[in-house]
């Protein structure tokens, strides 16, 4: 087996760089050939992985956070290469959804064990306008504004960063017109956020689409309609448990293909990465990615 270990040393405020040698050592014990790719930018990571692919590649192991995993998803989905993720970020939502350990060295040990068993499975992916892929959740509205703020923040780390960003964005909250088109019909309403989940989690473990299954060929759609700041404050605690879907302002549905638009200035984020302003059409592509672990 030929494997590339893609290390993003800055992930998790340097956590990935600190454990890279230990993770590489574990992998070398069980694979035939290991190429370690260390990249400081998205462009450098893509170029190095392409070189590894040209030499023959069976598996990409990403050591980093959800942003790093997102780049691995792009490469692996386009080039039919299997993906594994050793988490070393602040959110680690893809690993959480797949049921793996969220501590780096425990995850590396679990990966070694999975490689020994030949454990592989197919994962659905979301795709935006035939372009970028995503593995977890695409969001727009209030939560994408939170993402924009989180990406500008340097403190605190982990869930507290998202919690503070949520409180800051509440001050600017205004419902906007949203149009959601699916094969089953059109929903047009004033809303504050929409989330399309291939897996349940975003924002460091928030189950915004709590029943999303990455092997059912469908996207779970969560829409929070017209809601005041007080309404959102009542909804937000339930986000941590998935009970927000019981609130009267929240609507849910499932669809293979979803078009998002309307009179708003919302920006779509997916896997925590900025994608594009709406409108956008999002499709679930069944079995688009092979994952190990």
Characterize the structure shown.
The chain has 293 residues and is of the alpha+beta class. The chain folds into 2 domains: 2-118, Rossmann fold (3-Layer(aba) Sandwich), CATH 3.40.50; 133-286, Tumour Suppressor Smad4 (Sandwich), CATH 2.60.200. 34% of the residues lie in helices and 35% in strands. The strands form 3 sheets. Strands 5, 6, 7, 8, 9, 12, 13, 14, 15, 16 and 17 form an 11-stranded antiparallel sheet that branches.
Descriptive terms for the model:
single chain; alpha+beta; ATP-binding; 11-stranded antiparallel beta sheet; 34% helix; lipid metabolism; Tumour Suppressor Smad4; Rossmann fold; transferase; 4-stranded parallel beta sheet; 293 residues
Largest sheet: 11 strands, antiparallel
Task: Name the average pLDDT.
Answer: 90
Helix content: 25-40%
Order of H and E elements: EHEHEHEHHEEEHHEEEEEHEEEEE
Give the N-terminus to C-terminus distance in angstroms. Answer: 15 Å
Tally the beta strands: 17
User: What is the CATH topology classification name of the largest domain?
Assistant: Tumour Suppressor Smad4
Overall structural domain count: 2
The secondary-structure class comes to: alpha+beta
Spans with pLDDT under 50 lasting ≥5 residues?
A: none
Determine and state the CATH class of the largest domain: Mainly Beta
Number of helices: 8
Strand content: 35-45%
Radius of gyration: 19 Å
Based on the structure given, which CATH architecture of the largest domain is correct? Sandwich
What global shape is seen? globular
Protein name: Sphingosine kinase
Domain DAGKc: 1-132
InterPro entries: ATP-NAD_kinase_N, Diacylglycerol/lipid_kinase, Diacylglycerol_kinase_cat_dom, Lipid_Phosphate_FormReg, NAD/diacylglycerol_kinase_sf, YegS/DAGK_C
GO molecular function, one term: metal ion binding
């Amino acid at each position: 087996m030929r494997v590339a270990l893609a290390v993003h040393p800055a992930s998790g405020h340097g956590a990935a760089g600190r454990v890279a040698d230990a993770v590489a050592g574990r992998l070398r014990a069980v694979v035939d050939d290991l190429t370690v790719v260390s990249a400081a930018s998205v462009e450098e990571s893509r170029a190095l992985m392409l070189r590894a692919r040209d030499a023959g590649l069976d598996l990409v192991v990403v050591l980093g956070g959800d942003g790093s995993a997102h780049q691995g998803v792009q490469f692996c989905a386009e080039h039919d290469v299997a993906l594994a993720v050793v988490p070393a970020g602040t959110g680690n939502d893809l690993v959480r959804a797949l049921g793996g350990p969220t501590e780096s060295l425990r995850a590396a040990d679990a990966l070694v064990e999975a490689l020994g068993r030949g454990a592989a499975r197919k994962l659905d992916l979301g795709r935006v306008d035939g372009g970028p892929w995503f593995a977890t959740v695409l969001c727009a509205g209030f939560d994408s504004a939170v993402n924009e703020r989180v990406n500008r923040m340097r403190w605190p780390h982990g869930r507290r960063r998202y919690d503070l960003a949520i409180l800051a964005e509440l001050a600017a909250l205004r419902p906007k017109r949203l149009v959601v088109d699916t094969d089953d019909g059109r929903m047009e309403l004033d809303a504050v956020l929409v989330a399309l989940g291939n897996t349940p989690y975003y924002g460091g473990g928030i189950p915004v689409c709590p029943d999303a299954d990455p092997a059912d060929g469908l996207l779970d759609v969560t829409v929070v309609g017209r809601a005041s700041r007080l309404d959102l404050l009542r909804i937000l605690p339930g986000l941590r448990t998935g009970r927000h879907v019981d609130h009267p302002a929240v609507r849910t549905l499932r669809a293979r293909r979803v078009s998002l638009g309307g009179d708003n200035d919302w920006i779509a984020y997916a896997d925590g990465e900025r994608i594009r302003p709406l409108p956008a059409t999002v499709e679930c592509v069944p079995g688009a990615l092979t994952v190990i672990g």
